[in-house]
């Protein structure tokens, strides 16, 4: 390749890539509003509070920032804003060993900041941050009777749900989409081979009708 | 040195290394704050802002100094206006000092960061581009004056060389890509979208163009390699940098509220980003191997090749390991990114500017022979320390990824407990890095002076 050819390839190739970037940028800008809730005056004022106190100097948001303090993207999903507001006004009054200093926010500023954080918590971030595998596999307070039975009978020894569990049997993360029929699951639990030919799964015929029904109910929620 | 006006580069180099020293001092304070948050009068956010802003500014000053050296040599004429270069230098130093004072005031009293004409007075609260709007405008004016001076110099003799073209092209691209960060948007998603245009298209776009141009310049100057050969590979390298880097921007758009197709765009293009960096390593080795005769500035060559290697390792390898969306989903926003940031900036840009200093200062001070041992000492203190800093932060990032992201432990529990030893070692190696920087600063300020006397 001659020097001139290399030069032209560099210039025109780069221009082409930049044009593609601009096209994608225009397309993205048109789609962003549908992926997030409406921006109210409070949310906008809250964003200004976020900038004013240089929150990104310690925290991350959408995973970008300083890695010194927890990520704020989905903070209102698991923690109520009432708690967060109290904490932010005087962190060490709530948690004595907190690293966060008192920044001197006014009541109004704190309210607006909560509105802003509630907004970012509702943005569609393509599933980020992902639910921790262990925590999501563990039974939490929302676990239904079927989920409790699933672990009591150690179904997880052979089956994975959300990345947690054994791999001897099929992954059940989306089994509810594949088999939405409760009766199918009950028949299958009682006698796997009659439903799935050559199945290696043992029969759970010894379970009560009520237990089988509850596990089946849990299965069809896995979509 | 052929042209008296090239001496202006020394002003920029001096300011750059002094600011480098400040950057590392505050870096050590920040490292200690990971263990003791109340260790210093200023909170972590202010210290961290000073750490990353000092980095960006001293590298820019180094690039400007290097360019003021390269342009007259390539154009074979004196700089268009030395007074303008001096004005631009002192105006930049003044503006940077004012911004730093503003950060410190805000650090002591956060309420001082008030809204004025719709923007924040002291700190914009946006990572890397914290400088307030009035300072943004001064920075743009400074860069425009700098570019004007360079372009007018080129026009004096109209000797358009490849190195000059790519160098000034990169600097112009740099100036333009500062603009998307200079407006307010009420959507945090759009805010981060445009903010990445600035940050990514600087460090993985325009800055790499400058690096490739300076690499070619240094190889030519040190080894006497034919410009024609160097230029061809430089074009191929910068071409690949931009083909992969421009759309590689997509790897920042996975999780910030942008559409899902960015996972494909970012994943594919950013996975290819190490290729041009590897090509630069090969280029540096090939050129060195093919050289006949004695290289007098061995430390300059050593640093040049080291820059190429660590650019590939830090920016390339440490970047590509977590660039795929499947991996990044778990590592995004953890210390893994910090590790990549440290090694990438060190390899790609710190070593680049340090190499440029060692390649050009002897001729700026009018000496052929100089004591090279201090240069090696500085390099090894800094490099070994940085490797260990990166190992500790990578370890911390992996522990964080497993415990927080995969197992669901609390962020604070992981940081305060499981990662404590990593923070301790990071701070210790930070002091080792400081030793290297102190040797560097003394050497850059005194190199060649004794011999000249």
In percent, how helical is the residue content of chain A?
40-55%
Number of domains of chain B: 3
CATH class of the largest domain in chain A: Mainly Alpha
> Which pair of protein chains has the largest interface, and what are the residue counts?
A-B, 72 and 73 residues
Continuous helix count of chain B: 16
What is the end-to-end distance of chain B? Answer: 17 Å
Question: Biggest β-sheet of chain B, characterized?
Answer: 2 strands, antiparallel
How much beta of chain B, percentage-wise?
under 5%
* Mean pLDDT value of chain A: 91
Low-confidence stretches of chain B: none
Number of helices of chain A: 12
Give the spatial strand order of the biggest sheet of chain B: 1-2
What structural class should be given to the helix and strand makeup of chain B? Answer: mainly alpha
How does the overall form of chain B come out from the CA principal axes?
A: globular
Explain this structure to me?
The complex is a heterodimer of chains A (223) and B (453). Chain A is built from 12 helices and 4 strands, in the order ααββααααααββαααα. Chain A is mainly α and 223 residues long. In chain A, strand 3 and strand 4 form a beta hairpin. Chain A starts with a helix and ends with a helix. With 453 residues, chain B is mostly helical. Helices cover 76% and strands 1% of the residues of chain B. Chain B is built from 16 helices and 2 strands. In chain B, strands 1-2 form a two-stranded antiparallel sheet. Chain B is globular and about 60 Å long. The relative contact order of chain B is 0.09. At the A-B interface, helix 1, helix 2, strand 1, strand 2 and helix 6 of A face helix 2, helix 6, helix 7, helix 8 and helix 12 of B.
């Amino acid at each position: 390749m001659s020097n001139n050819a290399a030069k032209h390839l560099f210039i025109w190739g780069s221009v082409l890539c930049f044009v593609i970037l601009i096209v994608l940028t225009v397309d993205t800008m048109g789609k962003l509003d549908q992926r997030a809730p409406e921006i109210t005056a409070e949310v906008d004022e809250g964003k200004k509070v976020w900038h004013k106190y240089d929150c990104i100097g310690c925290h991350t948001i959408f995973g970008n920032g300083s890695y010194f303090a927890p990520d704020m993207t989905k903070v209102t999903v698991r923690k109520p804003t009432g708690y967060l507001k109290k904490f932010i006004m005087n962190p060490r009054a709530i948690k004595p060993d907190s690293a966060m200093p008192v920044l001197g926010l006014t009541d109004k500023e704190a309210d607006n900041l909560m509105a802003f954080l509630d907004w970012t918590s509702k943005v569609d971030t393509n599933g980020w941050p992902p639910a921790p595998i262990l925590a999501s596999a563990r039974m939490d307070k929302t676990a239904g009777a079927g989920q409790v039975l699933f672990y009591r009978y150690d179904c997880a020894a052979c089956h994975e749900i959300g990345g947690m569990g054994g791999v001897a049997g099929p992954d059940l993360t989306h089994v509810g989409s594949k088999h939405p029929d409760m009766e199918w699951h009950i028949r299958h639990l009682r006698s796997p081979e009659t439903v799935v030919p050559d199945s290696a799964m043992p029969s759970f015929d010894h379970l009560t009708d009520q237990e089988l029904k509850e596990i089946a109910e849990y299965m069809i929620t896995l979509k | 040195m052929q042209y008296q006006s090239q001496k202006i580069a020394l002003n920029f180099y001096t300011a750059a290394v002094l600011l480098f020293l400040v950057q590392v001092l505050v870096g050590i304070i920040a490292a200690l704050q990971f263990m003791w948050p109340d260790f210093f009068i200023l909170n972590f956010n202010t210290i961290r802002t000073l750490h990353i802003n000092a980095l960006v500014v001293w590298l820019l000053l180094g690039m400007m100094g290097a360019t003021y050296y390269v342009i007259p040599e390539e154009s074979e004429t004196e700089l268009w206006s030395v007074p303008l270069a001096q004005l631009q230098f002192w105006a930049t130093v003044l503006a940077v000092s004012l911004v730093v004072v503003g950060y410190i005031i805000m650090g002591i009293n956060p309420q001082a960061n008030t809204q004025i004409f719709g923007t924040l007075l002291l700190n914009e609260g946006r990572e890397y581009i914290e400088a307030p709007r009035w300072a943004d405008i001064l920075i743009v004016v400074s860069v425009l004056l700098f570019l004007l001076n360079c372009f007018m110099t080129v026009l004096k003799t109209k000797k358009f060389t490849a190195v000059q073209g790519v160098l000034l092209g990169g600097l112009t691209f740099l100036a333009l890509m500062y603009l998307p960060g200079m407006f307010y948007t009420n959507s945090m998603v759009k805010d981060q979208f445009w903010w990445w245009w600035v940050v990514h298209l600087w460090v993985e776009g325009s800055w790499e163009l400058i690096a490739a141009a300076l690499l070619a310049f240094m190889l030519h100057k040190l080894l006497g390699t034919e410009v024609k050969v160097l230029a061809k590979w430089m074009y191929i390298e910068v071409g690949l940098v931009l083909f992969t880097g421009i759309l590689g921007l997509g790897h920042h758009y996975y999780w910030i509220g942008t559409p899902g197709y960015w996972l494909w765009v970012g994943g594919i293009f950013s996975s290819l980003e190490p290729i041009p960096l590897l090509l630069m390593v090969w280029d540096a080795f090939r050129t060195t191997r093919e050289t006949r005769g004695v290289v007098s500035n061995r430390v300059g060559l050593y640093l040049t090749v080291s820059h190429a290697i660590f650019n590939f390792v830090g920016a390339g390898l440490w970047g590509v390991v977590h660039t795929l969306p499947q991996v990044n989903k778990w590592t995004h926003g953890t210390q893994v990114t910090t590790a990549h940031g440290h090694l990438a900036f060190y390899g790609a840009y710190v070593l680049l500017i340090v190499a440029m200093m060692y390649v050009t200062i002897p001729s700026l001070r009018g000496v052929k022979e100089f004591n090279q041992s201090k240069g090696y000492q500085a390099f090894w203190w800094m490099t070994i320390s940085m490797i260990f800093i990166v190992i500790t932060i990578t370890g911390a990032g992996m522990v964080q990824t497993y415990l927080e992201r995969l197992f669901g432990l609390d962020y604070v529990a992981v940081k305060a407990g499981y990662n404590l030893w990593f923070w301790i070692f990071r701070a210790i190696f930070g002091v080792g890095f400081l030793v290297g920087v102190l040797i560097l600063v003394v050497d850059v300020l005194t190199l060649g002076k004794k011999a000249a006397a």
